[in-house]
Design a protein that fits this description.
Elements (H helix, E strand, L loop, with lengths): L4 H21 L5 H22 L8 H27 L2 H8 L3 H11 L6 H18 L1
Helix pairs in contact: 2-3, 3-4
Length: 136
């Protein structure tokens, strides 16, 4: 088995739960309050990770800037998701927002010069068509 399969399945499961739990959370908390508690949960895991690194994470100015930007983008996306799922059906909000990899794919092609096969391209187009059909 390829070494990336298990963490990929883990990401799928974590993000699957991540997409489901906010619908229940926003019945008890507004999105602004919910995001505060989400970040606190992330801080708990960040501290655990810091401990596992013996309080010596790698340091590189560009890497730190990119990682912090990624965190801010994730926070923004999570807040938008919480806001959407508070009033919208989780089945549609999760499905449409879960197509975020199409943005990553286009950016990877444009800026990292990655390539995709015809079969992968067809899959991406079908995912976009699926989003349009689900959102309609």
């Amino acid at each position: 088995m390829k070494d990336w399969i298990v963490p990929t399945l883990g990401a799928m499961m974590f993000w699957g739960l991540w997409g489901f739990l906010p619908k229940i959370t926003t019945t008890y908390l507004n999105p602004r309050s919910a995001i505060v508690y989400e970040v606190l949960g992330a801080i708990v895991l960040a501290i655990a990770m810091l401990i596992s690194l013996n309080f010596q994470p790698q340091v590189h100015p560009i890497g730190i800037g990119l990682a912090m930007t990624t965190g801010m983008l994730g926070f923004g996306g999570a807040f938008c998701f919480l806001t959407a799922v508070m009033t919208g059906p989780v089945t549609l909000v999760a499905t449409i927002s879960a197509l975020y990899p199409t943005v990553s794919i286009f950016l990877a092609i444009a800026f990292l010069h990655e390539t995709i096969t015809l079969q992968q391209g067809i899959g991406i187009v079908l995912a976009i068509v699926a989003m349009i059909l689900v959102a309609a």
